[in-house]
Amino acid sequence: MTEKQREEAEWENINMLLMTHGLKPLSLEKRTDLKDFIIFDKQSSQKMRQNLKTLVEETECQQKMIQELIETNQQLKQNVSIIKENEWSNKRLLLLCKRISTD
């Protein structure tokens, strides 16, 4: 595999990663007429690929963290609800005990 083919394969991998996350793929042009294109050197191209990969991975990590926070919040709400129910039951039990003791 030539260096150009390897770079194209890396860009295709980036495109797959982008599409997996609902983003649009980048267009790879193989034309010689370059008047409407911006060209990057190999080092810049590599940095861009790495930056895109890192960005998508960090976004994925943040989405997982948000999901975990949502789940933890729901569990805490359930726990608070159970505690309130227990407090209410305890108050009713105390009132009942007071009535029994006064009778």
TrEMBL record:
Chief place where the protein resides: cytoplasm
UniProt GO molecular function: gamma-tubulin binding
Coiled-coil segments on the chain, per record: 59-86
Keyword Cytoplasm: yes
Location(s) in or outside the cell: Cytoplasm, Cytoskeleton, Microtubule organizing center, Centrosome
Gene Ontology biological process terms in this record: cilium assembly; regulation of microtubule cytoskeleton organization
UniProt signal peptide: none
Residue intervals passing through the bilayer: none
Keyword Coiled coil: yes
Key words of the record: Coiled coil, Cytoplasm, Cytoskeleton, TPR repeat
Source domain of life: Eukaryota
GO cellular component labels: centrosome
Quaternary structure (record): Directly interacts with tubulin-gamma; this interaction determines centrosomal localization.
Reported function: Plays a role in the organization of both preexisting and nascent microtubules in interphase cells. During mitosis, required for the organization and orientation of the mitotic spindle.
Listed name of the protein: Centrosomal protein of 70 kDa
